[in-house]
Amino acid sequence: MVSLATLGPRPWLAVKSASARLLRQVPYVISGSRSAAGAARLPSFRMVTMSTQPRRGRPDSSRRKQSPSSPQLSIVVPVHNEAENVRPLIDEISAAMGSSTAYEIVYVDDGSTDATPQRLREAMAETPPLRVIAHRGCFGQSAAILTGVQAARAPVIATLDGDGQNDPADIPQLMRIHAESGSPEGLMLAGLRAKRRDTAVKRLSSRIANGVRSRLLGDRTPDTGCGLKLFTRDAFLNLPRFDHMHRFLPALMLSTGGEVRSVPVNHRPRGAGATKYGTFDRLWVGISDLLGVLWLRRRQLRPVVEREYGKGES
């Protein structure tokens, strides 16, 4: 367990700084790229298939009605320099989903500098459900997931890591569990990698980070690092947004009154390439964010509306 003593001789200054930073980040998506002044800036896009922000005068897209042709599931995949894994994973997603569910695949290219954009364009020609959104730079995994969820057209979201270690064949099972639950609107299903297929260093860093996070936040989720998750779009967009938020999704969902269940899923060795979003930062970069999430949960506004009066007609 991490104590405040590890933060230096003036731990409460660290708490105050982390809390203030998180508060500034709440209404916005925070990128992994910052200006010289240290201020976070929003991701910009080179290739967008639809607007990710509601225009003035338009209702929020999260409340738009679903047409008969709209997908029921959006599979969001953030990638950064994963050229070798693009086509195999897309083929696996298509095979796992089949024709039983109307779905779309939303790839978010987070500033790749290899052949990832080319591989995605090639795949789009042969995969009608595929949509691609490209960030103008590398803004981080949390920003990429947020971009994908904002652009999604389905009410239910599944997320996958782009390295091929998550198995798309687990998605139908998660969909059944979600649909059969009593309250799917506030339910997040988190993958639990019972048999990790990672290096010893990566397993150790994840074990330490999960232990520290679980002890401090009490989120009762043994594997928050698994990229395979399923939740509703509205529930996700109701969460506070900040850099590295993807590491705390179960705790954030619980803080808004939702429910989180861990479901055992398959895990595979990485097919090609190397980890792009870091290993030991699972712990060290996350300490200040942990303090911020603790602060946020203590001050979460959760009013309960008993009833509403009047028709509001003019």
The coarse overall form would be globular
Q: Approximately how much beta-strand content do the residues carry? A: 5-15%
Spans of at least 5 consecutive residues with low confidence:
1-7, 19-42, 44-64
Write the CATH fold name.
Spore Coat Polysaccharide Biosynthesis Protein SpsA, Chain A
| Computed CA radius of gyration, to the nearest angstrom | 19 Å
Per CATH, the superfamily is Spore Coat Polysaccharide Biosynthesis Protein SpsA, Chain A
**Helix coverage percent of residues?**
25-40%
Number of helices: 9
Number of strands: 8
Biggest β-sheet strands, sense, barrel = 8 strands, mixed
Q: Determine the mean pLDDT.
A: 77
Give the number of domains: 1
Structural class: alpha/beta
Oligomer: single chain
CATH class: Alpha Beta
Provide the spatial order of strands within the biggest beta sheet.
1-4-3-2-5-7-6-8
> So, CATH architecture?
Alpha-Beta Complex
Order of helices and strands, N to C? HEEHEHEHEHEHEHHEH
